[in-house]
Structures are given as structure tokens and as C-alpha cells.
Write a structure and sequence with these properties.
Structural class: mainly alpha
Helix content: over 70%
Radius of gyration: 24 Å
Distance between the termini: 89 Å
Number of strands: 0
Strand content: under 5%
Number of helices: 2
Largest sheet: none
Shape: rod-shaped
């Protein structure tokens, strides 16, 4: 006699694994870390300040 398999557990484990794979793909495709976002914001703000500082009155 074979082992008893809980089909609900199998289905949920497969769904979790599929969601994890999708999340990893999205993280690579779209994600930036909080540090990268902060650095980009700081650079953008500095560029705007520098540009405003060079405008003629």
C-alpha cells in the first residue's frame, strides 16, 4: 500500500511555491531596495537644487 497524500496540502504547497517564484521574478524585474530608492531621491533633489541655483534672476 502506498503513502497517503493530503491533496489539500499538496495543492497549497504548490500554490505557495508558484507565488514565491512569481515574487522573485517581480523583485528582479521591478524591485529596488529602500537604500537604492533613497539614494535616487537624494540625487534627484540635489540635481533640482543645483539647477535652481544656476537660474538667472
Amino acid at each position: 500500500m502506498g503513502n497517503v497524500t493530503n491533496l489539500n496540502r499538496f495543492r497549497k504547497d504548490k500554490a505557495r511555491a508558484d507565488a514565491k517564484v512569481q515574487a522573485d521574478e517581480n523583485a528582479v524585474k521591478f524591485g529596488r531596495s529602500k537604500a537604492e530608492k533613497t539614494v535616487a531621491k537624494i540625487k534627484s533633489d540635489k540635481a533640482a537644487r543645483d539647477l535652481d541655483g544656476h537660474k538667472r534672476s
